[in-house]
Write a structure and sequence with these properties.
Blueprint: E1 2-6, H1 13-24, E2 28-30, H2 31-41, H3 44-54, H4 61-72, E3 81-84, H5 90-102, E4 109-114, H6 117-125, E5 127-130, E6 136-138, E7 157-158, H7 165-179, H8 181-188, E8 192-196, H9 201-216
Parallel strand pairs: 1-3, 1-4, 2-3, 4-8
Antiparallel strand pairs: 5-6, 5-7
Length: about 220
């Protein structure tokens, strides 16, 4: 089962991908994770990526696709995979399709996790992290017992720069410009199914499973 999860930052794709990976015993493949892993392991594509990263340049699509291809060639992907955070652009989607065809594979399911912008902003900008132990909190959904203090170690909490409203709005704008067109792309491929990314983790999980199990029947 080869799955792509689409959705804006904060939609909960990573959480749902981990649940699916455990249930179906196939790996969750996060572009950021495998990029860092390829650089650390000094794979051929990892070495190329490091050159761009050290120069402060964006890693080009050809290298990112190459790193994904290296990862999908591993044995644990033989029965399927879950792509989380890739593809990010139509160009990457085209490259992924060509790469999978060359290996006799194809994307089988594309699920878009939809959440409106204001809810995403609330989810992300409410995040807080302990300066001491790193535990995460949320000002609305998981607040500490004492304002701005960690329940575990008592150290202060802070908001990461990536979680500020200004940064988050910019990230959402980039998503709309570059990644949202993938919804049209995969709709035209008759692969896309959309769900609302609101409600409990269990409710969202069940919505995804209904799609996957329905297609598989």
């Amino acid at each position: 089962m080869n799955i792509i999860l689409l959705g804006p930052p904060g939609a909960g794709k990573g959480t749902q991908a981990k649940i699916l990976a455990k249930k179906f015993k196939i790996p969750q493949i996060s572009t950021g994770d495998i990029l860092r892993g390829a650089v650390k392991d000094q794979t051929p594509m990892g070495i190329k990526a490091k050159g761009f990263m050290d120069a402060g340049a964006l890693v080009p699509d050809s290298v990112v696709v190459g790193i994904v291809e290296e990862r999908l060639a591993k044995e644990d992907c033989f029965d399927g995979f879950i792509l989380d955070g890739f593809p990010r652009t139509v160009a990457q989607a085209d490259a992924l399709k060509e790469m999978l065809v060359s290996h006799g594979k194809a994307v089988e399911h594309v699920i878009s996790v939809d959440v409106n912008k204001e809810e995403l902003l609330q989810r992300i900008t409410g995040r807080r992290t302990c300066k001491g132990c790193g535990r995460g909190y949320h000002t609305v959904f998981d607040p500490p017992r004492v304002d701005d203090k960690c329940d575990e170690c008592g150290d202060g909490l802070y908001q990461r720069d990536d979680d500020s409203e200004e940064t988050m709005r910019k990230r959402l704008d980039v998503y709309e410009e570059q990644t949202a067109p993938l919804v049209t792309y995969y709709s035209n491929e008759s692969l896309l199914r959309s769900i609302r990314g609101t409600g409990s983790i269990e409710e969202i999980q069940q919505a995804i499973l209904r799609i996957l199990e329905g297609v598989r029947e």
